[in-house]
Design brief:
It is built from 33 helices and no strands. Helix 17 runs antiparallel to helix 18 and helix 19 packs antiparallel against helix 20 (about 470-485). Helix content is about 75%, strand content about 0%.
């Protein structure tokens, strides 16, 4: 086909192209350098393995590895880990750099396979900014796909050279490169089929095809099987050999091709879904038909690379939907090289068809305008797609309880591309914000602007409004959402959990105890058997001084969960404050029975024994606590207090002395030690201990004033 622009074959052309792709990479992907990596999951598993391999190289092939054995990837991460450790910046920059290298190698490969320079460079640009495979350049662990493509293209180049020269050297390099690709990601085995296709294309004879192709396929088959056998416990291997689903095998390839074509230049919320749709499958069928027509009418190299795209999705035909998070984006990386070439050819063909009514200059303007528009759309979409990575990183931090970082990642996701995020991201953000005592009114309003009918978001907005003032309108909104789908137990549970989490945050962090009571009570209105809400309601009622209601809440907790240690202990504390010491003892005994090493339960039980003049049992309980917690200053302080109240001042002094040894800077332990010595008649030692205590106390301390008064003339 006639080219649109004359592109000279010179060093300047390639230098300008490299600089241009470098600038495009940074503009579209550079913000990833500021992203974190996942706090748990595959990335941390691989880094964990690398750390072990550095200290024990034999761990490289250990069956105890967390990540599958992939030698090229392991070697790359070993080098990276040595250079910058766990710094996420280095890994993201490495990934972007390797993607740029794969892009340049694709352009080189196309030229070597007979494409003109314009088509090769245009295809490379489309691949560089291909939106369909966005996950492969976001998630650090997916460097394996990029490495696999680099090795695969190397194999293709040398296979073509072997076909042209019949030199064994090129056959050897082909096999080595294929082995490296397969041991980076086993799906690269499909490249052998492409090499076989190229052999058939060039020779169109059965005998040389068999003599050249069968050994290649056998070697690749052996390598692929071995790559799985070395890590049979990992989900890649298990997913390949189990749970075959014929309907999935028939639909997945068309779905993957449809997703490749629909999201190459632009990404919408539908483009990150993980459920195949009829229109995407239909688009994939049209893609296959187009590949056939390209081949039928001998439109090369577009036909070759359309076939490449089809072959590269075949290894994922049995891939289960539950392994998808944001659709099959990561598995489209190798295949997207083929669709990039086909789409580049289609764009140029479209422009060149205007030759009867546009001048060459006008065609160049139209071509450049369309190209700039597509590249701009791709770059903007990739920027927006980075919000997916921030969201998933936030989820990983939320899973390990680091809610502050999780919340910051969710907010970053909204800043990068709020309109592309699924509705559940706003729900995740709201629940995390509730746990931090924050009311995400603005963020939920932002989500509802995109998903006005989403029940989760409307529910969260109702909870937020209720927490702000407890208005009837807010309650009405909550019940309206729940009544719209009364059988949705998950939604009801989420509402109760959100209210409870917000109440816990109000109680623990903001000291808004009355508001916490109101939130816990609302959670119980929605789920009357919510044990955690009862327990936390009891704590909040104690803080508001409502001991009667606190007692009822703890009793309700125990009724629903008899082994709830904290409920027994806190119920005992309520009885203790009310002066019902025998009931307190019964509750504390139950707590100690359920959790024999619970220090607070033991010490409160000792207190209750002391209040009922059961001094021997109080002492014995403290001594048991000391045996189980020998480094606890608190146990010795409690024992000393019991002895002191009995008038056994010397024993009290001995106990307080041990408390001071365990916590030398603890002012109460030092003061009580001084007092015990004083009452035991050891005035000199008491005087020294008082002086030591004075040094620990601030000038405004009332205890300091009491001690100084003892020395006043």
């Amino acid at each position: 086909m006639q080219t649109c622009f004359p592109i000279p074959h010179c060093r300047t052309t390639y230098l300008v192209f490299v600089l241009f792709t470098l600038a495009l990479s940074w503009m579209a992907l550079g913000n990833l350098s500021g992203h974190l990596i996942n706090a748990e999951g595959d990335e941390q598993d691989l880094l964990h393995d690398v750390q072990h391999i550095k200290t024990n190289p034999a761990y490289l092939v250990s069956p105890d590895r967390w990540a599958p054995v992939r030698p090229p990837l392991d070697l790359l991460f070993l080098i990276a880990h040595t250079l910058w450790g766990y710094s996420p910046v280095g890994y993201h920059l490495l990934q972007i750099g390797l993607h740029l290298l794969a892009t340049l190698l694709l352009a080189y490969t196309l030229v070597k396979l007979g494409a003109d320079r314009e088509l090769a460079l245009l295809s490379a640009l489309f691949f560089l900014l291909n939106v369909a495979h966005f996950r492969s350049v976001q998630w650090v662990i997916l460097i394996n796909y990029i490495l696999a493509l680099i090795f695969s293209l190397t194999a293709v180049i040398h296979h073509v050279r072997f076909l042209e020269s019949n030199r064994p050297f090129h056959r050897l390099v082909t096999l080595i490169a294929l082995a490296a690709a397969i041991f980076t990601h086993p799906s690269s085995a499909a490249v052998a089929l492409f090499c076989l296709y190229l052999s058939w294309q060039k020779q169109r004879a059965l005998r040389p095809l068999l003599t050249q192709g069968v050994p290649l396929l056998l070697v690749v088959l052996i390598l692929t099987i071995f790559s799985y056998l070395v890590s049979p416990q990992h989900q890649q291997a298990q997913g390949l050999i189990s749970n075959f689903d014929l309907s999935r095998i028939l639909s997945n390839p068309f779905w993957y091709l449809g997703r490749l074509l629909s999201t190459s230049f632009y990404l919408t919320p539908a483009g990150i879904g993980n459920i195949p749709t009829a229109w995407e499958i239909g688009l994939g069928v049209l893609g296959c038909l187009s590949a056939y027509l390209l081949f039928r009418y001998r439109i090369f190299p577009a036909a070759d690379w359309a076939i490449w795209a089809i072959l590269m999705v075949l290894p994922f035909a049995n891939n289960a939907l539950d392994r998808q998070i944001v659709g099959p984006s990561r598995q489209l990386y190798l295949a997207s090289a083929g669709t990039s070439v086909a789409l580049a050819w289609a764009l140029r063909a479209l422009v060149m068809q205007t030759q009867d009514w546009l001048t060459r200059r006008q065609k160049q303007i139209v071509f450049a305008t369309l190209l700039a528009g597509l590249l701009l759309a791709s770059g903007v979409s990739l920027k927006r797609a980075s919000s997916i990575d921030s969201w998933l990183v936030g989820r990983s931090y939320e899973a390990i309880g680091r809610f502050k970082i999780a919340l910051s990642q969710y907010h970053l996701a909204l800043e990068e591309g709020d309109s592309i995020l699924p509705s559940k991201v706003y729900a995740y953000l709201a629940v995390t914000a509730f746990g931090q005592g924050r009311l995400p009114h603005r963020e939920l309003a932002q989500g509802l602007a995109h998903y006005p009918d989403d029940p989760q978001l409307n529910l969260m907005m109702g909870i937020t409004t209720f927490a702000q003032g407890g208005s009837r309108e807010a309650e009405k909104q909550i019940h309206l959402v729940l009544n719209a789908d009364p059988h949705n137990k998950k939604l009801l549970s989420q509402a109760a959990i959100s209210l409870c989490n917000l109440g816990i945050s109000y109680y623990n962090h903001l000291q808004r105890h009355q508001d916490a009571v109101r939130l816990f009570q609302k959670a119980l209105d929605l789920q009357p058997n919510y044990t955690n809400a009862y327990y936390n309601l009891g704590n909040a009622q104690i803080a508001t001084g409502n001991l009667k209601e606190a007692k009822v809440a703890f009793q309700s907790t125990i009724q629903r969960q008899p082994n709830h240690v904290l409920a027994h202990r806190n119920l005992g504390a309520v009885y203790f404050q009310e002066g019902h010491y025998n009931k307190a003892i019964a509750s504390f005994q139950q707590a100690v029975q359920l959790a024999p090493k619970d220090l607070l339960a033991q010490l409160t039980l000792a207190d209750a024994y002391s209040k009922t003049d059961r001094f021997q049992q109080a002492v014995q309980t403290c001594q048991n606590a000391i045996l189980q917690h020998p480094d606890s200053s608190r146990s010795y302080r409690k024992l000393g207090a019991i002895y002191f109240n009995q008038g056994r001042y010397q024993d009290a002094a001995t106990a307080f002395q041990q408390a001071v040894k365990k916590a030398p800077q603890h002012t109460q332990a030092n003061f009580y030690f001084a007092q015990a010595l004083h009452f035991a008649g050891n005035i000199q030692a008491a005087d020294r201990q008082y002086q030591k205590t004075l040094a620990l106390l601030p000038d405004t301390s009332s205890v300091r004033q009491r001690i100084l008064a003892m020395y006043a003339p």
